Amino acid sequence: MIGIIMFGVALVMLMLGFPVAFTFGGVALFFGIYAEGMELFAFMPFRIMSVMQNTVLMAVPLFIFMGVVLQRTKLAEQLLTSMGRLFGGLPGGLAISTILVGALLAASTGVVGASVVAMGLISLPVMLAHKYDKRLSTGTICASGTLGQIVPPSIILIILGDVLGLPVGDLFKAAVWPGVVLIGLYIIYILVLTRLKPETAPAMPVDPGRSRKQEVISALIAIIPPLALIVVVLGSIFSGIATPTESSALGGVGAVVLAIIYRQFSFRMIWDAAQDTVKVTAMVFAILIGATAFSMVFSYTGGDYLLEDWLHMLPGEQWGFIILAMAVILILGFFIDFVEISFIIVPILAPVAEAMGINMLWFAILIAMNLQTSFLTPPFGFALFYLKGVAPPEVKTVDIYKGIIPFIAIQILVLALIVIFPEWFGMSATY
Amino acid sequence: MRWIIKLDEGLARLSTFCGWIACIAMILMTANVFYDVVARYAFNSVSIGMQEMEWHLYSVVFLLGIPYALRNDAHVRVDVFYTNWSNTTKAWVNLIGAIIFVIPFAYLIANYGYSFAVDSYNMGEGSGDPGGLPNRWIIKAVIPFAAFFIATAGLNMVTFALRVISGEKSYEVEHSGGDLA
Amino acid sequence: AQEKFTLRLAETWGPNFPIFGDTTKNFAKLVEEMSDGRLRIRIDSSNKHKAPFGVFDMVKAGQYDMGHSASYYWKGKVPETLFFTSMPFGMTAIEQYAWFYYGDGMELMQEVYAPQNMLSFPGGNTGIQMGGWFRKEIKSLDDLQGLKMRIPGFAGEVFAEVGVSPTNIPPGELYTALERNTIDAVEWVGPALDLRLGFQQIADYYYTGWHEPATELQYLVNKKTWEKLPSDLQTILKTAMRVSAYDMLVLSQHENAKAWANIKKEYPDVQIKNFPEDVFQAMYDANKKLLKEAAGKNDLAKRIVESQEEYLEKTRAYTDISERAYLNTMAEVE
Lengths: 431, 181, 334
Ligand code: NA
Ligand code: NA
Fold this sequence. Notes:
heterotrimer; A: globular; B: 4 helices; binds sodium ion
């Protein structure tokens, strides 16, 4: 029960505005010492060490570095505004471009801290400069930055493959359509929203001196270099030159090469970019370390056993089970990180589902969709914290909390579609 | 008050020093990963030592980056109330938070991290993989080191808060990672 | 009433990791039943302690009473721990158990772990591990030159000696790395566990094993914990460790057979291969050379290597006229 109280206290403390990472760590400290004594924290060096040796997380500083260099050299702006121009007088062009670029990045990294921060650096200033609504901008970035969780390769799918004993390749294949549908619905949402409220996402100004054809051609030319960079990153993974993590270093070096080509390069610029990267990286990892202290206290005070007990009370009939299981994961996702859910909750649900003859591949995709949402749900959605960490001061936490709601709704809608019409996504609910 | 200003500025230099090392590690790490990819793909040459160096550098980036980010107020806050508060109220939040959250948390990590590293030193621990790096205690020692500097950065939050309370400094100038975006 | 004890055990594996996790669960159940509830084991898997390779240090420091892991993971800390898991071209499971329980194995192992304030016991055997998944067939030693393979530890050193480039890839990226030829080969465990990672979908050549003929896991017990237990509970603990270890070998055989039947049926492209003779010979020589180096480091290492060599010679002579003779006969009549 201590774990549950601790969540409540953390929530209240967070509202005071002390840095999130140390609020998590500090609250964990008090509850941990109270329940288990100081020695509990002898586990912390081990936990920090496992973050240090988790080389997949290297993508965080590397992608952030790429994002910072692209942003400092204005190449990111060029990419997004040019893509936006291709939409001509259509409002929402920048937001749609953000989603498309986010989807491309998603195909290379599955690390939320990397893609949300990189997208935040690249596209938030551009959208704000073009008078986009703060909520729409932040919601779009968080949603597209977490796409990497469902678009393969994805860490969630790999962990679920391990926990459920399913081949990763099958999961990757099964996740493609849900990912595509999600991206499509995000874009449709933006098109509909901007039709109804054009002021939330003004169209790019059209240069009256140039024909539409000239405009499109110059935009296409401007897109090529930064897009080439993304192609290099993705291409290096698909061709086997680099692992997904390593590809992020190619992205960083590629961004520097672009800077040289565009005569934006200076050692000062690289040093400044490194400083920004270190600050943002530290922000992300401090949260990870604070959160690991928090989950340590949660589980060592019996929180995991409590959850297990609750889960054993789920109904034994297929549709009731699926709906309640999804609801439980969604709600837990508000508070607990996805790795905990994958390892504590999924193994309890899986045998029940299997006994009902539920197709485990389908079940895994449902869980993955659901866990992706957990990065976005206030108050503890990590993607929201990360974006806040790189947003200018005029963007408030509340803007981000409100901005994400429509996108969460879309994710729940897609989840429901996969539940009700699995065949649309090339799956079946049962064997 | 004079000595608080002196202390504040001295502590800030410690955090800046950490940031400086982290920045160098950041640049080296990018080069290291890039080199490993090129060497493997173009020259079919793989060095596990170089591969391990990647995570050594990456650990330095984020561990020593944390005190640096503390001094630069780059750690994310939930600003539902915080932004609307006066400088004095913010100073009190930071002062109390640093004393009850940051410093004890850093102290415990430094304390247990120290024996963690010493143990590794005494065993002469190295990598168990072919061609891996020896002297693992060095990278393990970064944990207590970083924790020590997080504690000094926490103390730095206190000294800065005191300067703000005295009216000599304010948070507007330094606050938020906004200069990044 | 008699005093009750609860021992906390940290395992390197995740919860519900098949076979390995079944072993600790089985162990905990046996302990509790045999002691009539006086001794309980609380298992913490890697998702809880988050330090799969910190088990050694945590048991040593007394943060956990017991550990379940594999001795060769600690090679970087205490080099002599290497010898108690499985050695390339070494003993089979039954031979190695004989060495542990009736040869000098146990004594030597306690000698290695005593300065670390721990006791170590056999913790279950995977049986022979497969030689790995390769995307290209290995026809000669030349095909191994510069071949990028995920193969850790001592076996990696042997492979490196014959020209392979051992490569570190985090488990989460292994599938993608193999699929896209970032690496050429992956060594994992055996059919039952390999199947879960899906290598059969992307690599056609499944090589037979030589590098880990009998991978023995280990139980670690903190010395202080051990000493505070009354002798009847110590006996219960020892018995439960031994029974659960034996049961793991049996379960491995069962699960691997099942998984292999499955792979054969659903992935007919997968071919079983032996490394060519020149490759085996080169690896055999490399292994000899490396073992000699390892034995030269100190007296204890030397005694362990010699004990294993002597025992292998004796026990293999019998295996030759018993199991091997039988299997050969079977091969002729089938
Ligand atoms: Na992805
Ligand atoms: Na293996």
